[in-house]
C-alpha cells in the first residue's frame, strides 16, 4: 500500500503529483538540531532466506552502495559495491567464485577479507589492492552489517535467540517510513501514545466518534514501562488486553529489547503461546527508513503468528491514514510508505 503522500496533502492532485511530492520531500527543511542520520550499529541489509549460495544482491543503505553475496561455504558477506580497478558495480553482473566475488568487467577476484586474490593474465595478484569488507552476521532471519562512522570494529555482538532453533518463520511486514531513524525508538519509548493512538479496534473506528460504543465494539488497553540500559540496549515491559464491557480478553505480555538504533526484539506471551517479533530499522536515506518485522513462533500457534502479520499491516495502514505524528515541524515529520506482508500460517 502506497502511503508516501501522507504529510503532503497541500500538494494539489495532478499527473505529476508524485514527482512534486518527491521534490517536496527532498527540499523539506530539516531543522538545526538533527542527530547524525547514520548512527553506529548493526543494520539489516537483506533477508537470509532470499540470498542463496552463489547469490549476489545490490543494496543502497546507510549512505553506502553495497554488494552482498553468499559464498560456497554458505556464509553471507558484504563489500563495497565498486571495484577499485575501474569502478564496476560488483553487485550488477558480478559472480561468486568459491568464497570470492568476481568483478564483471575484468574478472578481478576479491577474497574473504576483501583483498584482491586473482587477476586474469597476471601470475601474482597486485599487493595492496582491496575492497572494504563489512563485518557481517546473520540473526533473526536477516543479514546484518556493522556501520561505524569512524570505521571502528563492532562494539557489541548480536546474540542468537535459542528459541529460533526450533521455532518457525511465519511471515514479515515491511514499511518505508519518512522519518529520522531516532524517531523510531523514540516512538517505542513514548508509552503514553499507546492508549492515545492504538486503542481503537480494527473492527471499527466508530468508537473514536462515539465513545459509548467502546463498550460494545471493544478497545485495546495498554500499559507499559520503559527503562534505559547502561549499554547499547533499552527495555520495555508491555501488557495488552482487549476490553469489551467489563471483560478483558486476549491478554498479552510483551518483553521488548532495543538493541542499538536498528534492532528490536519483542517476545510476546499470548494465551495460546509465545511469538517473537524481530524488528530491523535500516536507513535508506537521512530521513527514509525501511522497517521490517519478522515473526517467529512454535508450530502449535503458527496461525496466530500469521494472523499477527496481517493484522499488524492493517493497523499500521490505519495509523498512517490517521496521520500519526505527521507534520510535527522541521525534523519531526513522519509518514508511511510501502506496506508489504508475506505471512506463512504453517
TrEMBL record:
Question: What is its pathway?
Answer: Steroid hormone biosynthesis; dafachronic acid biosynthesis; Hormone biosynthesis
Subcellular localization: Membrane
Which residue range or ranges hold the Rieske domain? 42-145
Does the record bear tRNA-binding in its keywords?
Answer: no
Q: Which cofactor does it need?
A: Fe cation
Keyword Iron-sulfur among record annotations: yes
Give the residue ranges for region: Disordered.
1-31
Coiled-coil parts of chain: none
In its UniProt record, which GO terms are filed under biological process? cholesterol metabolic process
Any one cellular component term from GO for this entry?
Answer: membrane
- Per the record, what are the reactions this protein catalyses? cholesterol + NADPH + O2 + H(+) = 7-dehydrocholesterol + NADP(+) + 2 H2O; cholesterol + NADH + O2 + H(+) = 7-dehydrocholesterol + NAD(+) + 2 H2O
- State one molecular function term (GO): cholesterol 7-desaturase [NAD(P)H] activity
Q: Which PROSITE patterns match?
A: RIESKE
Q: What InterPro entries would the database entry show?
A: Cholesterol_7-desaturase (IPR050584), KshA-like_C (IPR045605), Rieske_2Fe-2S (IPR017941), Rieske_2Fe-2S_sf (IPR036922)
Keywords from UniProt, A to Z, are:
2Fe-2S, Iron, Iron-sulfur, Membrane, Metal-binding, Oxidoreductase, Transmembrane, Transmembrane helix
Class of enzymatic activity (EC top level): oxidoreductase
Q: What is its EC number?
A: 1.14.19.21
This protein's source sits in the domain of life called Eukaryota
Family note: Belongs to the cholesterol 7-desaturase family.
The record's listing under PANTHER family reads: CHOLESTEROL 7-DESATURASE NVD, IRON-SULFUR DOMAIN CONTAINING PROTEIN
- Tell me the protein's name: cholesterol 7-desaturase
The species this protein belongs to is: Heliothis virescens (Tobacco budworm moth)
